[in-house]
Design brief:
The complex is a heterodimer of chains A (about 140) and B (about 140).
Chain A: H1 3-21, H2 26-33, H3 42-60, H4 83-99, H5 103-108, H6 115-134
Chain B: H1 6-27, H2 33-42, H3 47-68, H4 82-99, H5 103-112, H6 116-140
The chains are: A mainly alpha (about 140), B mainly alpha (about 140).
Chain lengths: ~140, ~140
């Protein structure tokens, strides 16, 4: 099995999880962000379920040097809590609140065949490319 | 809380967690979707692998709709205002890459690894997302 097949399988499982969780629906996400009006706490259960499932495995696997496919594991270096982290996360928060889509659900939403999701993804790609070409 | 769906939310979350763990165990990489998306469109190395993951994200829901259940637990409902969609998409792309992660990279993988910066990043984007939605509800009423 190579990493392309594994990636495909993991993407499929992730996508099924997203649909079942309800988070592919922007209205549901906005319901969570709508803290002052009809608040829907479901998103906490999605993140909680994923963290509780993945957390212990990350802990027990943390000293592994090689993946099961034999690649050297390079976890991201400890990230500084700096201006980039704070401003970037804030801008992401604004975009997330405007539409109710973050990157995973935005891609899974293509499965609805609603053309507006393509417009969102193209705008998202533009944001990624502008960041990549302007800020190191 | 009209539309609170804790059980499907928890089940979906556990399934996402399984994907994240399996991906990490097999490839040694973290399933942060904004990072996978950036690499897929800007990096030649592992491009097919990254594209395969993104393709899976689309196939997963199609499998679900065709073979598991005829409709999602909650219906798809998105704004069709370009005034929200275009800046929203741009800020999600720009912001996640500047901040080093999104809901999956910081929110699930990062918090799952007890990373302080990810906990702070998640707190920020959730808080700012809440402020944005509250602001729109007060003044823009979803344009």
């Amino acid at each position: 099995m190579n990493d392309k097949i594994i990636s495909l399988i993991c993407g499929i499982i992730f996508g099924i999880g997203l649909v079942i969780s309800g988070m592919t629906n922007p209205e549901k996400v906005i319901g969570f962000l709508s803290i002052t009006h009809n608040w829907d706490a479901s998103l906490i259960f999605v993140m909680g379920g994923a963290i509780i499932t993945a957390g212990p495995f990350f802990y027990f696997l943390k000293n592994k040097e090689f993946s099961a496919l034999g690649d050297k594991i390079n976890l991201p270096a400890k990230q500084n809590i700096d201006k980039k982290l704070i401003i970037g996360s804030s801008l992401f928060g604004v975009g997330w609140g405007l539409v109710g889509l973050c990157p995973g659900p935005a891609i899974s939403a293509l499965a609805t065949f609603d053309p507006i999701t393509v417009v969102f993804l193209l705008s998202m790609a533009a944001g990624v490319l502008v960041k990549k070409n302007t800020i190191k | 809380m009209n539309n609170f769906t804790p059980f499907s939310a928890l089940l979906g979350g556990v399934i996402i967690g399984v994907s994240v763990v399996f991906y990490y165990y097999m490839t040694g990489r973290l399933a942060g979707i904004s990072g996978i998306f950036e690499n897929a469109i800007t990096k030649a190395s592992q491009r097919l692998s990254n594209l395969a993951f993104l393709l899976g994200l689309v196939i997963g829901p199609l499998i679900y709709f065709n073979f598991i259940a005829s409709s999602a637990p909650v219906a798809f409902n998105i704004t069709h205002s370009y005034l929200l969609i275009i800046p929203g998409g741009f800020l999600v792309g720009f912001g996640t890459r500047l901040g080093g992660g999104c809901t999956s990279g910081h929110g699930i993988c990062g918090i799952g690894r007890l990373s302080t910066s990810s906990i702070i990043a998640t707190g920020i984007f959730v808080a700012i997302g809440m402020l944005t939605v509250t602001f729109l509800q007060q003044f823009g009423n979803y344009l």
